[in-house]
Amino acid sequence: MSKRISPEDNLQPHGDEFYELLMKAHEGLDFDQSAALNARLVLILANEVGDLTTLSAAIDRAARS
Amino acid sequence: MHYENREYPFRTPPELKGETPGRYPVAIVGAGPIGMAMAIDLALKGIRSVILDDNNVVSVGSRAICWAKRTLEIFDRLGIGDRMLEKGVTWKVGRLFHGDKEVYNFDLLPDDAHKMPAFVNLQQYYVEEYLVDRIADFPDLIDLRWLSKVTGEEVVADGVTLTVQTAEGDYQLAADYVLACDGAKSRIRQRMGLKFEGHTFEEHFLITDVDMPKPPFESETPERWFWFKPPFHTGQSALLHKQPDDIYRIDLQLEFGSDPAEEAKPEKVIPRLKQIVGDRAFEIDWVSVYSFTCAMLEKFVHGRVIFVGDSAHVVSPFGARGGNGGIQDVDNLGWKLAAVLKGEAPPDLLMTYDEERRHGAAENIMNSSRATNFMTPKSKMEAVFRDAVLNLASDLPFARRLVNSGRLSVPCSLEGLALQSPRRTDRGLAPGTPCPDAPLGEGWLLNKLGGEFMLLTVGKKTRDDALAGVKSLHFENHPDVTAHYGDNMIYLIRPDQHVAAAFEAGTDVATLTQALARAKGQAALETAS
């Protein structure tokens, strides 16, 4: 099975709105609290995606800095 | 090449010659791009105005330089579009850097279906010069008075009396309406004690205009370079783009807490510029330090005083929504004020300027605030996210679209606001949409629309669609028009080139008539459901 993540821009046309929501969620948190929020968010979104092949490909891309 | 500001002369006004010129329909305070465009739009509709400005030159320094497509289309209707297009620089290649690494680049291909490009770069002084020249075409309708400072206004129910200070003495001038086009620090707004609060951003930015004959780009094609975390200074972002006359605008975001006056000194600025442009010869043409606030008035219309442009709303410069937003105010107010002054519409029509342009200003503030927040992370986590977006942007299109160095000014939709009829069909353009341009073989669609209400029909002609007193325009078998407007459609187009109502072909005349009355503010005004 080939691993791939979406080359499509699935957020359009709501990208800026999503980013604003994300930043608002972090407002007022210290860095550790923000990291914890991110962890919860990643887990929830992973469940939304569901497909292990996609998740594995996403982890690979994210690991590349 | 450095721009030489011409000084315009003071001319003794009739009021100081012992004459009694009477009351003016409109007095405009401020001869910037907004005030002058306002006078021209009114003159095109036969309305006389007087413009009062405390200065005697056009903009000192390049100031607003990015003019977006919709603005160019409006200026084209006012008569200076071709000059702006001819002189302006249209950039095509954009490069985005993170540190010293290029994240991606893109080609902004011109759209052959539109007369005007996405935008041009042109110094504000040229735009103002072209407006001054254009005003000379209306000697009986526009009285442009330099070195005439408005020091007070007495507002009564049916007009305003202004006090004007000049070197030859003070005088008073009465007008039915006063348009406050006196900029971000509007004295009229201050004197009237109007609340103008919003979000002030603490970062300072340093603008430098550099005169540099040899371009820093690899070819002669103008480019736009944007840096996040630039390698040549400690601030969060930097921008370089080209203006006419080999002038380059370089915009540096200064590090939080740095001393702006210190940063503007040549001994600080020059080494930094050398890091950007290498050993090319250059001269500094203009330097300015700014910080900004996003704010708007709670109401733009205060009885007989109407606020237009920066006096009504200010935004951050990212996305070029200041000057461009102001010109859309002009476009929106011109036909309405003319209709009210001619007795063709009730004064309530002016409240729709307030409704529609506050909607536009709020959208501009939202977009420019989002860009500012992306560019100036307020916390460590915001910076982490910004860097993550830039990392992913090298290969993932969604992340590329999240990179926000300013969303280019586009006009807002007016759908759902009082003058527009509710949507009746899913085909074609929705009510409230600004009309897209289309090539007509010879000439352009937008040069045929606007200035007055029009009925635009597209498709096979089965009957004569006509409305009393409204010009009709018909297109059949015209793929460039139907591409945007759909086929077998009837549109009612406003004088500012927005769709007021859209119908399927064959819609009865009574319905069209009703839509026209609504769009002209003659029907009872209520928000569309």
TrEMBL record, chain A:
Top-rank taxon: Bacteria
InterPro entries associated with the record: DUF2783
Protein name, per record: DUF2783 domain-containing protein
Gene source species: Sneathiella chungangensis
From TrEMBL, chain B:
Xref: InterPro entries: FAD-bd (IPR002938), FAD/NAD-bd_sf (IPR036188), RIFMO-like (IPR050641)
NCBIfam families found in the cross-reference section: PRK08132.1
Domain of life of the source: Bacteria
Co-factor requirement: FAD
Protein name (database record): FAD-dependent oxidoreductase
Organism: Sneathiella chungangensis
Keywords (A to Z) from UniProt: FAD, Flavoprotein
UniProt xrefs under Pfam families: FAD_binding_3 (PF01494)
Record-annotated FAD-binding domain positions: 24-367
Transmembrane segments: none
GO molecular function, one term: FAD binding
